[in-house]
Specification:
Layout: H1 5-11, E1 14-18, H2 23-27, H3 30-38, E2 42-43, H4 47-55, H5 61-70, H6 76-101, E3 108-112, H7 121-135, E4 140-145, H8 150-160, E5 164-169, H9 172-191, E6 201-206, H10 208-214, H11 229-245, H12 251-255, E7 262-266, H13 279-282, E8 289-293, H14 295-304, H15 318-327, H16 332-366
Parallel strand pairs: 1-2, 1-8, 2-3, 3-4, 4-5, 5-6, 6-7, 7-8
Helix pairs in contact: 4-16, 5-6, 5-16, 6-16, 7-8, 8-9, 9-11, 10-11, 10-16, 11-15
Length: about 375
Amino acid sequence: MSTNPLKQLGTLGQSVWYDNIHRDMLTSGELARLVETDDLRGVTSNPTIFDKAISGGDTYDDAIAGALRDEPELSAGELFNHVAVADIRDAADVLRPVHDRTGGTDGMVSMEVSPALAHDTDGTVAEARRLWAWLDRPNVMVKVPATAAGVPAIETLINDGINVNVTLLFSLQRYAEVVDAYLAGLQQRARRGEPVAHVRSVASFFVSRVDTAVDPQLGGDNTALQGKAAIANAQCAYAHFESVFDGDRFADLRALGAQEQRLLWASTGTKNPDYSDIKYVEALIGDRTVNTLPPATYDAYKDHGAPRARIHDGIDEAPDTLAQLEAAGIDLRAVTDALEVDGVQAFLDSYNNLLRTLNDKAGTLAA
């Protein structure tokens, strides 16, 4: 067995994706190197990642200038899409051999719809369809937030045959809705006699932010529960995944070649310095899952990860842990609802900052 912990995760059924993208990764060959040396199998992006990439220097200036030469009237939002689509396409091309080798399961690159559409079902559907056609690669996913408005959009897009990365999932209740939407979309395709085997989706379930929100509320006699909410929450989600996709509800679709909507562990960087820097990787290693790692966590796991399939360790006790948290005064539904709101706002803030940066750059380059 390989001594590279990142590669070992693949042998345990978990795909490692990289929660970062930057043009320098593509032009320098870094992304191709990570695929080769670490068995990297996918890339995720979001408005915050692109904000840092584009605002952080002049790497994108030539691409911005070129887009404006071709279409001088581009809005900042359209200018961003031109730049981002180019990166996503190039990354998808690097990862295409992974996609082919894994039968379409991995090798995916994700691009998010505008966070300004998070509460607009029709707007999300229209934007996702436009991005899907523009990206024009089989190994891309359009990211859609799991808001109340996002759930019906997800069903429609799966019905369209579009690959969807469902993002900003925090609560078990919303996760169940997302699974239902995925199944409903596939079932609609199947009833029309359209193929379902090529459709891929992941449900990005956010982890560490739950502990960050819950831990400060646990004091006195309840300090022993600190650091337990996030993993118990994720384990309960995985239990639901297994009950649905290994059960009768999925049997007919599976017979038609449909694939599970894998759980993708997101927000797996450790926020609390008192915890292990790989806490949220080690605890959630399991078959048919994805973990998208930010650069620092990626490097840390490669350095000192100890891979072993742990997702089932204590999974039967996870509901009891959530019950103990409730008894200690934690309203987990309220916590996860607030995290969803905050997550959408954080991406919107990054997106608006990015648009301001692009407007400034456009003015400077024009001058």
